[in-house]
């Protein structure tokens, strides 16, 4: 059974890889939104309606992922975030490497789970993620869980620096076992050239499939929008474009994957790099610095690009990190975004003993997260 014919199969493991700034997580949220409302996929096929469970070790659900889901038209009552584990009177963060039994029980309790997203998938592995045996040992319980629950498992990962031109599956970070265990491997990338409107051309590609076609994909664009009901909260969403033909290796040959840029980089390159990196929303300056270094840009070049783009620095609270964000602007919601948000709930599973409901009472045009509150039942 397919959630999306040729792309997402029930009970199977999938990998979505890409360089920083390609919008991997935003794409994953778009896929989650589609399942949560039973909307049509980019090729026109309709998704089966179902629940989505997400675990992320990289993004905060409230200020990052929920706004993205809302702008993508998700039914938030069907989206569940795994956050904490309760052990007696103590709480700790969910650890996918040791809490698989608890996750299994929670998925059974939620019911009708069609899609399980793990970001990053490497977090499941205890030990060296570059060793095949340890990766297989770490991933197998999650693969078995997806098979038993008949839900599609989607793991998100980065690409290894300096691997341009190699087989796309070999470019995934870590052991080759990540790509070997996945039935379908997808890639997100961006072309070096711009289209006739001056926009960066991005492509979502199928790089491997053991159960169907292993080529082709779709163009997409990343748009930032400010939540109408919550001014100041900016999120990104995906707008799907035309279908593309060819193998991932052929299509990636002309794509700019950011992490493989040459040393130094021009001012124009740096501005494009920063724009793409921050397209998904604000990032800590330390992360920007690390990603820029990995992409071969000097910090003075990045600072000049920051000034040219009007990127602002902000700090949350006394102890919060400094973050960079692109200037806010209003962008229309993606076509097909759902407007029936009245009474929608976001479910954050913050303990495996209780389900917590985070309710949004905003207007029906979008569903921001600033009105959400955690409530134990």
TrEMBL record:
Pfam families in alphabetical order: AAA_25
InterPro entries listed in its UniProt record: P-loop_NTPase (IPR027417)
Compositionally skewed regions (Basic and acidic residues) per UniProt: 354-370
Taxonomy, superkingdom: Bacteria
Residue span of region Disordered: 353-377
Name by which UniProt lists this protein: AAA family ATPase
Organism of origin: Noviherbaspirillum cavernae
Lineage, broadest ranks: Bacteria, Pseudomonadati, Pseudomonadota, Betaproteobacteria, Burkholderiales
């Amino acid at each position: 059974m397919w959630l999306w014919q040729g792309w997402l199969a029930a009970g199977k493991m999938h990998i979505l890889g890409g360089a920083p700034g390609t919008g991997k997580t935003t794409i994953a949220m778009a896929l989650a939104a589609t399942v949560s409302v039973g909307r049509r996929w980019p090729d026109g096929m309709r998704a089966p309606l179902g629940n989505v469970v997400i675990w992320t070790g990289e993004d905060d659900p409230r200020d990052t992922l929920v706004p993205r889901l809302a702008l993508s038209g998700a039914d938030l009552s069907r989206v569940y975030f795994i956050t904490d584990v309760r052990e007696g009177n103590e709480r700790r963060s969910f650890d996918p490497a040791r809490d698989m039994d608890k996750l299994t029980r929670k998925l059974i309790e939620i019911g009708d789970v069609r899609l399980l997203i793990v970001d990053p998938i490497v977090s499941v592995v205890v030990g060296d993620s570059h060793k095949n045996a340890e990766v297989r040992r770490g991933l197998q319980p999650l693969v078995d869980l997806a098979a038993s629950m008949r839900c599609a498992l989607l793991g998100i990962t980065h690409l290894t620096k300096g691997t341009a031109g190699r087989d796309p599956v070999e470019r995934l970070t870590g052991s080759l076992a990540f790509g070997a265990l996945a039935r379908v491997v997808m890639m997100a990338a961006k072309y070096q050239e711009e289209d006739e409107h001056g926009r960066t051309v991005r492509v979502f590609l199928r790089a491997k499939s053991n159960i169907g076609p292993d080529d082709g994909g779709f163009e997409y664009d990343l748009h930032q929008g400010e939540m109408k009901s919550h001014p100041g909260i900016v999120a990104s969403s995906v707008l799907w474009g035309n279908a593309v033909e060819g193998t991932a290796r052929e299509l990636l040959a002309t794509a700019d994957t950011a992490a493989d840029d040459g040393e130094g980089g021009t001012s124009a390159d740096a501005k494009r790099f920063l724009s793409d990196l921050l397209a998904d929303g604000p990032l800590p300056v330390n992360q920007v610095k690390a990603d820029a270094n990995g992409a071969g840009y000097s910090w003075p070049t990045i600072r000049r690009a920051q000034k040219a783009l009007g990127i602002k620095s902000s700090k949350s609270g006394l102890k919060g990190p400094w973050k960079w964000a692109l200037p806010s602007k209003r962008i229309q919601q993606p076509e097909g975004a759902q407007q029936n948000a009245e009474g929608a709930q976001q479910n954050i599973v913050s303990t495996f003993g209780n389900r917590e409901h985070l309710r949004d009472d905003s207007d029906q045009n979008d569903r921001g997260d600033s009105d959400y509150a955690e409530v134990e039942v």
